[in-house]
Design goal:
Leucine-rich Repeat Variant, 64% helix, 0% strand, elongated
Length: 336
């Protein structure tokens, strides 16, 4: 699991008709889109040190699979280590290993067959098996992830459902080739999750919806952009912006407002600064993406919001980036 990045160093956008290309969201982008509560992020910083040591000293994936098959309390650590390995470019070939994916899916299905549990070790194991399966670019883990994502909503299953739905979103973003039946199953699960009472689940679904090539998925994303939860709105608005959808503008205006506090819900004094930086980082990334989609969009309000941010007392990097984007949007408008 990654930490929240600092804003990029200020750089000038080129003049002319084209903004620089915006890369599609990566797996780590999910974390930055408020899917994971701050407490879990803090815990994972601690776990990460242990995981790095394990990866450095033991790098055979099948050894981890064998460790997962043994009924020991530490099995979840092997699952998290595999998830970390799959995120590491050094182990890129593992993402295509269908046998490894099938083995992990079998283990997850076996765990799920045991029913609901309040045992912390079992919950962690299921959670990290989901995270590992989401890193593959082959579809072998999809049925198990769908089963884990489509839980009964009981408190002890929430973290597993979050991990499974997040994994499906990452897998969809990787453009893995799914069978028609897998596509239908994922679509049904994501649409159901997008209507869940829990805002964290709806927030996760917003990422996945952007990668479902169906009109009603996009329409559902627009509905989430006016959700009562700020985190859900911000996820949905960011993903709509990546698609060049003008429905994102209203959400981006809120995210860019330096005086807006809606996104600070349930944050402590210590995490508010980090959360605000995360919101601004994603808002600027999204504003750059939607601006790139052309002059057919009405972006005057967005340019004004960027100018307001540039004149505020936020960090200098945010001020510079906001000012550059505002001027670029205004140049596009003047050229039409």
């Amino acid at each position: 699991m990654t930490s929240t990045p600092e804003p990029a160093s200020p750089r000038s956008l080129p003049s002319g008709d084209n903004l620089p290309p915006v890369e599609p969201p990566s797996a780590g982008f999910i974390v930055r889109l408020f899917v994971v509560p701050a407490l879990i992020v803090a815990i994972m910083f601690i776990v990460g040190g242990f995981v790095k040591w394990v990866i450095d000293t033991r790098s055979e994936p099948q050894e981890f699979v064998e460790a997962l098959r043994r009924d020991t309390p530490q099995r979840w650590q092997a699952a998290e280590t595999l998830a970390q390995m799959l995120r590491d470019p050094k182990y890129a070939d593992l993402k295509k290993d269908r046998k490894l994916a099938a083995d992990l899916a079998e283990l997850l299905e076996s765990e799920l067959a045991n029913g609901e549990t309040t045992d912390e070790q079992s919950i962690r194991l299921r959670e990290y098996l989901c995270r590992a399966l989401g890193e593959f670019v082959v579809p072998d883990g999809v049925p198990a992830l769908v089963d884990a994502a489509d839980g009964q909503g009981s408190p002890e299953s929430l973290e597993v459902r979050l991990a499974a739905n997040g994994a499906l979103a990452v897998l969809l973003a990787s453009e893995a080739e799914l069978s028609p039946s897998d596509q239908d199953a994922v679509y049904s699960t994501v649409m159901k999750t997008s209507q869940d009472p829990d805002p964290l689940l709806r927030s996760t679904a917003a990422f996945a919806l952007a990668y479902l090539p169906r009109p009603d998925a996009t329409e559902r994303l627009r509905v989430l952009a006016i959700d009562a939860s700020a985190n859900v709105r911000y996820n949905a608005g960011t993903m709509l912006a990546m698609q060049g959808d003008e429905a994102a503008v209203e959400v981006l205006l809120e995210m860019l407002d330096p005086e807006e506090v809606a996104g600070m819900e349930n944050e402590t004094d210590e995490t508010q600064i980090v959360k605000r930086r995360r919101i601004l980082t994603n808002a600027l990334k999204a504003a750059e993406a939607i601006a790139q989609h052309g002059s057919n969009l009405e972006l005057g309000e967005l340019a004004a919001a960027l100018e307001k941010l540039a004149a505020s007392d936020v960090d200098r990097g945010f001020q510079v980036k906001a000012g550059e984007l505002a001027r670029e949007i205004e140049r596009h408008a003047a050229a039409d």
